[in-house]
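Thread: NADP-dependent oxidoreductase domain-containing protein, structure

OP (GT): Posting the sequence first so everyone is looking at the same thing. Length is 284 residues per the record. Can we get the structure tokens written out before standup tomorrow? I want them in the notebook alongside the other entries.
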Amino acid sequence: MTTTLSPSSGYALNSGSKIPVIGLGVFKASEAEASLAVQEVFKSGYRHVDTAVYYENQSAVAKAVLKAGVPRDQLFFTTKVHPTATSYEGAKEQVAKTLQEIGGLKYVDLMLIHAPYGGAEKRLGAWKALTEAVQEGKIRSIGVSNYGVDHLTDLEQYIKDTDAKLGKGKGGVLSVNQIELHPWLQRRDIIDWCKKRGVLVQAWAPLAQSSRWGDPLLKNIAKRTGKSEAQILLRWSLQKDFNPLPKSVTPARIQQNLDVFDFELTDKEMAELETDEYDVHGWE
Ligand SMILES: NC(=O)c1ccc[n+]([C@@H]2O[C@H](COP(=O)([O-])OP(=O)(O)OC[C@H]3O[C@@H](n4cnc5c(N)ncnc54)[C@H](OP(=O)(O)O)[C@@H]3O)[C@@H](O)[C@H]2O)c1
């Protein structure tokens, strides 16, 4: 597994597509910052960017990605339905708006329902709209974000029922659940659910939003391994088979966050990083 990973490695998604093992997050980055960060990351070897309609920078991100001149099939562009647009009509509009904003990228590699807002009917409506967009070739893979086990179970039932009624695949294929994850928020029930079904878990806030620098747990392992605390957290994420999405607009950090393939945390170090804390920074 992780020992064989490199910056260009990818995880296979349930959709059949491949996603690079680390992606750049651009939440809270202005259009100008996101654009510069994307140019920087593509020089460093990243091929995967995670944005959202909510971040109000997807158009600038797409332009910067295109500027890198990397062949389209080697890029991975993720975006998300705005949390206030979780419904069939809302998600359809979001797909149309996104395709307009990303222009030359032509299609979205992964589109997620950003949050399980609005009740079951609206969530399933948004899923149906994304499924149709996949069938129309506008999106390659679809998934959800901030879903708990109950939301995931409802969605799974809908997919099974729709497949049974209309034919295999018609209910859509769940490839990803993107949730906040770091050693102080481990959400083991959600991870178990996803792993059993081959659903890739993407880790947002893999650096705990900078809230844990200097934590003795982290500091000791960083000192022992000669790596930065950020690199320890990213390694933890990779060794859990997650897909971390570290955000940075600082060139040296961007480079450092991808430089995590020449060492491995031992089983003992991984065990040291097991905590039962429930330190939520974002969606509950
Ligand atoms: N689905 C969702 O609901 C959701 C919610 C939140 C985030 N996300 C996604 O996940 C991504 C990451 O999450 P996040 O932005 O909340 O938090 P994060 O990646 O855990 O932390 C970002 C912070 O860490 C700093 N940083 C980055 N690399 C560093 C390094 N090597 N050393 C020291 N500091 C470093 C960044 O500063 P600088 O930028 O100044 O370098 C920034 O302040 C987001 O950008 C977004 O794409 C998704």
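GT: Both are above now. Quick notes for whoever picks this up: The two ends are 31 Å apart (CA to CA). Residues 10-212+241-264 form a domain with the TIM Barrel fold (CATH 3.20.20.100).
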